[in-house]
Structures
1.
Amino acid sequence: MENKYTQRISRNKIGRDFVIGDIHANKKRLFKALDSVCFDKTKDRLFSVGDLIDRGKHNLPILDLLRENWFFAVRGNHEQMLINRFEFPLTRLPYQVGVSETRFGAEEVHERNGGKWFARLRSELARTRIYQNLAALPYAIELETNQGVLGIVHAEVPERFDGWSEFVESLHNDSKTKEDSVWNRLAIESVYHAEQGKYWEAEFTDESRFIEGIDAVVHGHTGVHESVICGNQVWIDTGQKTGDLTILRVEDLLDLVEKKND
């Protein structure tokens, strides 16, 4: 770990690397996905796009994965909501209710989004350790592969950044960049209608955007029916739409991006 905002990881020289969509505390879906690729914990590695917690029943077992040397994750908005209830307990945060925005305390925002399990924990020490582990998660991972470099960011690389290095540098000193990287949906909404589960018609679609300095970037956060590709960005959060987690070998993901843009 170079700092608490970004993490650079070298190529796996003995096995395979996989990336997986938002787990949301669902152990059954996770292990079904791992079984589907014959995952070998002794040599393979798994990279999460964030949102490990909330909504599911297995929050603590999923969080235990952070202790494993084969498991890596970036920070998602659900991790950030839990962090906020520790760091800003008295701050009222914006929250969308229908078409209007109101403000709730950080604790209530988290609990409205599947975080009631955390309040039920009896041990203050356990709650503090969970917070500390999640606060240590990076906003971005840069993974070296056999076919190039893959970036991993929960929601998106904000559209104001043309290059990966510019985005990573901004993570170090700009709170808005951090917030946008775990919450925004502007990039995917410019090309894909999430509710209808299809790409916009060509005349309504922005020109494909390529982030310079990185071969591809993979995201979760926005529910999709299948992997969505725009330029060299890929969104893979299929769990909430299909009930199954998308798991991809990183080289296969890079191949998908290359074929889409041929």
2.
Amino acid sequence: MSNRSEPVRLQTLLAHYPATSALRTGALKSDLVHFTFADVKVSNTAFKPLVREAKFDLAELAIVTYLQAKAYGKPYVLLPAVVVGRGQHRALLYNGERGTLSPQDLPRRRVGVRAYTQTTGVWLRGILADDYGVDINRVRWVTFEDPHLAEYKDPEGIERMPAEKQMLQMLLQGEIDAAVFGGEIPDPRLKTVIPDADVAAQAWAQRNGGTPINHMIVVRESISRERPDVVREVYRLLLESKNQALPGIDAADTRFGVEENRRTLEMIIDYALRQGLIPHKLSVDDLFDETTRALV
């Protein structure tokens, strides 16, 4: 840790989003904290070295990966700051040229997902089970990547594809029946398995206290313990960067504060536990320490 009279330089993993733009471009500066941003275009490609090697001081991290990191004793603590949140209903797609597919058709079907631990997939499995009555244990899940955590092994029955297989190509060719895509719909032939997906996502958010969380911010535990002033400054900068992006972004997708995110965090913890992704139950308060729990 640097001398307190000098700025603290943080090795940082944070992608360029509208809500982080002012921070990433340097429009927001601090005398207390300087950021060295990793040269990574897609942040999830660096989640593995984050949780396996503790590579960064400050990082965005998929919430399910953080729940696993917490359960397996990785040296990070959560900040109550969402940098990526979105409705998940439109992420489950099928090839409309091969007939129709509804949630009730999914048991015994092959469904692709980048990794079984992918946060979007965890949300969707929970939503399918709770809101559409799907027995997700009867779905044949097909994966393409390892979990980020070395300690975690996929459940029995999860089918892993060889490296040369591509999820989109398999879906278009009928080798799998549906697939989870985290971004935009990648091909015009694809349709959402959940009908009226955007309307359903809006209704879900209204019922459950906000948009599902994808990525939040974590900080190295030792920094939070030894330099709470640095953590408070980081949080202030993140919040100011978000505020500078308003009203061009949906504030519900980037909520700040423990209480503002409590209900959604409770749900993803429950989904992760029920799906066998964490070895024991965590409470929302377990995810924070004294410094980050007090951030408002």
